[in-house]
């Protein structure tokens, strides 16, 4: 199978530039295409052109936070999968009722293998469902 067939477009959003850039390098190392944004407002500008398959977003962002950004994505790009990352223990309280079950959250710090496993599972599901003519499931 070609690299392009299994590659995902991944948008990484974190106001800590070192984290965003590090995650981008890790994800690119697995053959995925990435873009980075350092706040949700930048990400909102990138999304229409980049059309990410997956968005990895920090919860605590200046201005529009990660949860609000996820809701914005869900309204406009329902096929885009969002993975929230957070170093704050109160993340679950920021999610609206019903969101917690729909939005996976990785607690910082996390090993890169957890992030890569999430992306690999999503890519495999996407390929399988495309083969069946269906849309990918939200993990």
Automatic annotation (TrEMBL):
Modified residues (4-aspartylphosphate): 58
Record's keyword terms, sorted: Phosphoprotein
Family matches, as PROSITE patterns: RESPONSE_REGULATORY (PS50110)
Entry-linked Pfam families: Response_reg
SMART domains assigned to the protein according to its UniProt record, in alphabetical order: REC
One Gene Ontology biological process: phosphorelay signal transduction system
SUPFAM superfamilies: CheY-like (SSF52172)
Domain named Response regulatory: residues: 9-123
Superkingdom of this protein's organism: Bacteria
Gene3D superfamilies: 3.40.50.2300
InterPro entries on file: Bact_response_regulator (IPR050595), CheY-like_superfamily (IPR011006), Sig_transdc_resp-reg_receiver (IPR001789)
Keyword Cytoplasm: no
Descriptive protein name: Response regulator
Source organism per UniProt: Occallatibacter riparius
């Amino acid at each position: 199978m070609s690299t392009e067939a299994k590659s995902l477009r991944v948008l990484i959003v974190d106001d800590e530039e070192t984290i965003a850039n590090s995650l981008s390098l890790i994800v690119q190392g697995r053959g995925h295409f990435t873009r980075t944004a350092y706040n949700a407002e930048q990400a909102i500008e990138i999304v229409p052109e980049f059309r990410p398959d997956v968005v990895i977003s920090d919860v605590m962002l200046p201005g529009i936070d990660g949860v609000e950004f996820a809701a914005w994505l869900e309204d406009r790009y329902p096929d885009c999968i969002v993975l929230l990352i957070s170093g704050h223990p109160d993340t679950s309280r920021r999610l609206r009722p019903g969101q917690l079950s729909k939005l996976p959250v990785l607690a910082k710090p996390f090993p890169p293998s957890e992030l890569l496993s999430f992306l690999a599972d999503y890519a495999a599901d996407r390929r399988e469902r495309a083969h069946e003519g269906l849309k990918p499931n939200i993990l």
